[in-house]
Design brief:
10 helices, single chain, GTPase activator activity, GTPase activation, LRR_dom_sf
Length: 309
Amino acid sequence: MALPSSARLRHLTLKGGYPTAFSELDLCDGMAAFKTLETFEFLKVHITSHDLARGIAALLRENGRHLVKVRFERNDLSQPSAAVILEALLKCHLLSELSFVGNHLNKRNIETLAEVVRSLRNLKKLTLDFSFSNGGPFGPIAKALESNTSLEELSLKACQIQFEMLFEALHTNTTLRLLDLTLCKMTINEVMHLARALTFNKGMRTVLLPYCRLEDEGIVVLANAMAKNNTLEKLDLCFTWCSTQDVMAFCRSLKNNRTLRSVGFGLTRGSDQERRELSHQLSQHECYGRIALRWRDADLHTTDDGAES
């Protein structure tokens, strides 16, 4: 890695999960040679020593003037090591994409991450999947999102956070376009906060909620919010059990909503009579092609993958 021929490398990906051993000292020496990196990915490689964390931080600072994409994934970071790396990210002023996946942070490091969100004016995509559990302190990041004017995509897959804080931030945030909450379990009260946020939000285009196990009441609340929202284009509720009444609630909302182009549902339960009535509602409100159901029914002509024919 330290060879002169590699010194002008622009893209560096280090991926673990293999039995090959490596020397952290040699890795640090090798990384010190890179001065022109634009992307840096450190995936499934454990950062077991503070020396390695400092070496990575030095690389980030050295390349901070041209790094646009940085990814860390499942690195088994200690909190002191995470702190060193997060501080270095503050020097990456051109960064447009940051992933910090499967690396849990304490409150102090979350505050530093919030400062990263607040200070990096070019940051457009932030991925924090599997990084918050047991209602982790999301408040500082939510506060940063309130005034952020660059971030367009936020992914929080399988995170357990105080969702009310996130959804409150959506009342004032106008730049976020995509919110991915796949595998996030929410209470009915949190879903109501999301529905209220979508009523006011004027920037969001896509909300992904697969595997969220929303209750019927929560789905209907979201449907009612769509009657007032005029910017959202896609809402994904796949792999969530729902009733025909849930789908009908969306049919009624879509009657006056021409912006929402795609609503994906999970397995939909209902009697034959309810299905026939739903088919009528889909046709009456011109929802065929906009609502995708995951059942096979001769009347609805729905394929196995949920697409309609």
